[in-house]
Amino acid sequence: MNYIIDITLIALSAAIINNFVFYYFVGICPFIGVSRKVDLAFGMGCAVTFVICIAAFISWTFTAYILMPGAPLSSWIAGFFTSPEQAAGIDLSILSYIVYIFAIASSVQFVEMYLRKAFPMLYKSFGVFLPLITTNCAILFACLTIMSKVAGAENPAEAWDLGRALTLAFFGGVGFTISIVIMSGIREELELCDVPKPFRGAAITLIIGGIMAMAFTGFTGVDAGLKKAMTQEKPVVQAVMKEKSMEKGSAL
To answer: Most exposed of 32, 35, 63, 168 (fewest Cβ within 10 Å)?
Structure first.
């Protein structure tokens, strides 16, 4: 039950409550550059979601088995050259940035080749912004968050498993898609508006993005309230039922 609660809270937090764009302000480059048309924005959101899931899977696997201190694979290999005590303390987390960037770049190349073959018109519409997914800081942010929850967990029992990592990645991509599609819908309507010349282009986009970010702050604290309700609701219901049964027994 606790695992389901954790997955639910991670999903809601990544998609809405702590949205990558409106809460952490990462992924702003494609958010501004590819939010002129709804269909183009939706395609970019799907591409980012796919890339972030693949990168998260690779990142979690490398972190859990190779990079983190005492990782099983790195310790096993180091055991051939050093003592067991030294092998158990091997820490390759300094290589995390390099590994994550390679994981993101390879995933983007796969998406680029697939779109070029299957959806050439969509590939041309993306233009330079498709290879720029490699430098989308939202994807690297997700990988680093996963690393902090795996290698940075003080209690090994609280370290994230692959399910939690993929939940964060997928719903983080969903949250990015939601934000960029909302923005693209607003920008399509702005083409019919008389925007003052100093605010045209990226200026009005950033202003609207700031207003939307303030609106999303209304979700702040919802995750804590949901966690409290989901973990305490069952004992409260059981106590009420027990009290009612005792009252019924005394009445008899």
So the answer is: 32
pLDDT band at 114 (very low <50, low <70, confident <90, very high): confident
Cα distances (angstroms) measured from residue 170 to each of 95, 130, 227, 231 = 24, 19, 21, 24
Q: Which amino acid is at 194?
A: D
CA 112 – CA 66 distance, rounded (Å):
28
Residue 240: per-residue pLDDT: 47
Quote the CA–CA distance of 247 and 252 in Å, as a whole number. Answer: 9
How is the chain classified by DSSP, letter by letter?
A: -HHHHHHHHHHHIIIIIT-TTTTS---HHHHHHT-SSHHHHHHHHHHHHHHHHHHHHHHHHHIIIIISTT-HHHHHHHTTTS-HHHHHT---GGGHHHHHHHHHHHHHHHHHHHHHHH-HHHHHHHGGGTGGGGG-HHHHHHHHHHHHHHTS-SSGGGS--HHHHHHHHHHHHHHHHHHHHHHHHHHHHHTTS---GGGTTHHHHHHHHHHHHHHHGGGTTHHHHHHHHHHHHHHHHHHHHHHHHHHHHHH-
Cα separation, 15 vs 7, whole angstroms: 12
User: Which residue type occupies 60?
Assistant: W
CB atoms within 10 A of CB 9: 18
* pTM for the full predicted model: 0.82
Nearest residue to 201 (alpha-carbon basis) of 187, 212, 213: 187
177 token code pair: 């898609």
